[in-house]
Design goal:
It is a single chain. By secondary structure, this protein is α/β, with parallel strands linked by helices. 39% of the residues lie in helices and 20% in strands. The longest helix is centred in the first third of the chain and has 22 residues, at 84-105. The structure holds uridine-5'-diphosphate-4-deoxy-4-fluoro-alpha-D-galactose. Uridine-5'-diphosphate-4-deoxy-4-fluoro-alpha-D-galactose is lined by residues 75, 77, 115-117, 139, 168, 188-190, 193, 206-208, 219, 221, 258, 281, 284, 288.
Length: 322
């Protein structure tokens, strides 16, 4: 297929673009490089620099596209609370422009990066796709609005859409000479932050809160390897059906606490990694664990790489990048 990958210069978009190429698809990346890196676009994909609003119509009207994989987004929870309008504009507004361009060019398949943040504070875990969606920040709310929009476009315009709700994505793609991993200018994610301390960049890991109702008091999350996540995108692409919008969670079904993640990082790196308890980070739910039964049942996906593999690959990537 010929596929447009929006946000393909970012962490997850770049890895998925590489896996699409490896599977024989033709890939065009559209990215404004506001947070992405041109060198994260894998060789073999062409890069168009621009926003969805300014460029998606021109790119898609170039013709021949079968599908869009849509990663381009603002994704910092704290920033979204400070500046909600930015999130509604960049996430929902630009997606509407993309959907309009898709309609004009008669491109009918879309796979969208949604998030566990659409659920908010869960009533019970593991979280199923039928759980209530009550996002607790504008980031999650804007992603949920896009899920809803895709459902409407499927019903009203015959779009075939899949929303993949990621839980905590980690690890890197290491494939021969290719190494693609997380390198955000503002890094909020736990695993790269812990590994930075292992590399000597800072004194101690800050663990946000140890008084949660969890076995060791720190927050529990469900981590999924970016390469497993990419495999789910390829399955979803094949599964897009005109007039149907499906939502799938992507996680492993098991949870690890912040303390456990730090311990795995110590074991993988062989370094002591000092850690101290800090105040809770506002808006963090105590436990987020996905049920991924639906995508297993319907598309046959299941994760193959465990937390140690995620930390090992992220460590290889980050150590080499220095
Ligand atoms: N944490 C620390 N110290 C750090 C960084 C994180 O203790 O330096 C803790 C957080 O408080 C949280 C856990 O580690 O308890 C995981 O935090 P991340 O920032 O790595 O991930 P989140 O679970 O907050 O965020 C992920 C996605 C978001 C999405 C969210 C849904 O990265 O995009 O899940 O809740 F919005």
């Amino acid at each position: 297929m010929k596929v447009l990958v929006t946000g393909g210069a970012g962490y997850i978009g770049g890895v998925v673009a590489a896996r699409l190429l490896a599977a024989g698809h033709e890939v065009v990346v559209l990215d404004d490089l506001s947070t992405g890196h041109a060198d994260a676009v894998p060789a073999g994909a062409s890069l168009v620099r621009g926003t969805l609003r300014d460029a998606s119509c021109d790119v898609l009207s170039g013709g021949g596209f079968d599908a869009v994989l849509h990663f381009a987004a603002k994704s910092l929870v704290g920033e979204s609370v400070a500046n909600p309008a930015l999130y509604w504009d960049k996430n929902l507004g630009e997606t509407l422009a993309l959907l309009d361009a898709m309609r004009r060019a008669d491109v009918r398949r879309i796979v969208f990066s949604s998030t566990a943040a659409t659920y908010g504070e869960p009533e019970s875990t593991p979280i199923e796709e039928t759980a209530p969606t009550r996002p607790t920040n504008p980031y999650g709310a804007s992603k949920l609005a896009i899920d809803t929009t895709l459902a409407e476009y499927a019903r009203l315009h015959g779009l075939g859409g899949v929303s993949l709700r990621y839980f905590n994505v980690a690890g890197a793609l290491l494939d021969g000479g290719l190494a693609l991993g997380e390198r955000h200018t503002v890094e909020t994610h736990l695993i790269p932050n812990v590994l930075k301390i292992a590399l000597g960049d800072g004194d101690a890991v800050r663990m946000f809160g140890d008084d949660y109702p969890t076995p060791d008091g720190t927050c529990v999350r469900d981590y999924v390897h970016v390469v497993d996540l990419a495999a789910a995108h390829l399955l979803a692409l094949d599964a897009c059906e005109p007039g149907v919008h499906e939502v799938f969670n992507l996680g492993s079904g098991s949870g690890y606490s912040v303390r456990e993640v730090v311990d795995v990082c110590r074991a993988v790196t062989g370094r002591p990694i000092p850690a101290e308890v800090d105040a809770r980070r506002p808006g963090d739910p105590a436990v987020l664990i996905a049920s991924s039964d639906k995508i297993h049942r319907m598309l046959g996906w299941k994760p193959e790489r465990d937390l140690t593999a995620m930390v090992r690959d992220a460590w290889t990537f980050l150590s080499a990048a220095r």
